[in-house]
Structures
1.
Amino acid sequence: MTLADAGETSHASLVRALIELFVGEGFEIKGAKGVDGYPPASAIPNDGYGSSRPRQADVVGFDPARRRIVFGLARPHRESLDSEESLEEYNVFLDHNAGLGDRASVLYIMMPEDLLAEFTSLITHYIHREYWHRVIPVGRGPS
């Protein structure tokens, strides 16, 4: 399935789109949640956000050029952008390796294209300013 396939915006289609994007960027896929052919993504310890439970990204990759972990989350609906669970996930993944400068982990968030502007507004409200440059929103438009 490619990004141009039918205007489907289910969670599963967005996860597949994340994998496609990661591969296109030259990232090595280390795990993907619920996708045949990939091991499950490893859970990342939670240092005290929300429920304090470890969190699992939809896709985890490694960027060999920058030598950093790359996380991917799929957000198919408006409600999933700023739910308590989503905010916890953003903080856990952005806190991962935060002290490593250019090697700090990066978070890609795949969503329907019509949610990009709203997500950008939300992220500046809920996420610490020092993390903004490591959040990469990606919109997927209908074909």
Note: The chain has one domain: 27-140.
2.
Amino acid sequence: MPTPYVLVLYYSRHGKTAEMAQLIARGVESTGMEARIRTVPEVSPNNEQSTPDVPSEGAVYCTVDDLKQCSGLVMGSPTRFGNMAGALKYFLDGTSNLWLTGALINKPAGVFTSTASLHGGQEMTLMSMMIPLMHHGMVLAGLPYSEAGLTTTTSGGTPYGASHHSGPNGDNELSKEEIALCQAQGARIAKLAAQLTDAHIGQSS
């Protein structure tokens, strides 16, 4: 049986969503579970992949098998008019076989985002990102209000998932609350993944 891992899947244009992915992965690994960080390639205006199969730097590109074999998923994207970026949507559009086979049913999932403006559609983006994951039968988990940062933040951070206000030029550093909530989200999905994996093994034995 493969070693359980949480897939931290993201698309990042200017680096802030990638920075959040690293923090979420740190939260996953604080529980003792492996975090597997993956990204997706850019797509061209005609919705075809327009970059090499292997990136020159940073995280490697996600495969459908990476998603299929994960024990949990945390998925992130910058906001694009209240929705995820096209590159991430393009990847998800290629996962119909996982939907047909039910490969992701009952696996925990969470979402995260980054926006240039404080009210730039963070919560709408997070909720819209949940929709394809619900169609896959995943168990959606946000952030509970036991996380103090949700009530003290003056930047990003929502009960629907971690978020960051990057500023119009993308030069805002992540606040202490945003950092804490990213790590908390990773840890929560990892703990749920471990519990659900154990439950599945118990039912199968």
Note: The chain has one domain: 5-204.
3.
Amino acid sequence: MCLAVPMQITHIDGFDARCSARGVERNVSLFLLQGEPVNIGDYVLIHVGYAIQTLSAEQAQSTWELFDQILDEEPLLNA
């Protein structure tokens, strides 16, 4: 199973970006989004250190709500 996590871009330097979500920050590559307009404040899906897709703030929030729901319903994952 593959998992991509929505994060918000806080800094861009060429193809490198700093992204954050829920208090966690990561350096990610924007290389796979060449040709797409990507700006500070945008939301992107992160998979193994690469931004693979842009998404709206609403889509990012909805994804986090689904993750929360899964964790709330699966007590073994919270242990």
Note: The mean pLDDT is 91.
4.
Amino acid sequence: MGEGLLQPMHLLLILAIALFVFGPKKLPELGKGLGQGIRGFRDALNGGLHTEEDKTTEAPKQLEDKPKS
């Protein structure tokens, strides 16, 4: 019954409908939010064991420029 549920053509159709409904500007934001949600869910399942590793793999923080006196 569930055989071939998510075939490539089905995924393309879902992506096309999402693009039509949300538009090209909103779609990357939705993907990012979905990815963060999945990552948070995995961390919760693992008991937050990998939270320190995740923090180090994020983009580096911008260095603060101190005004010269």
Note: The mean pLDDT is 77.
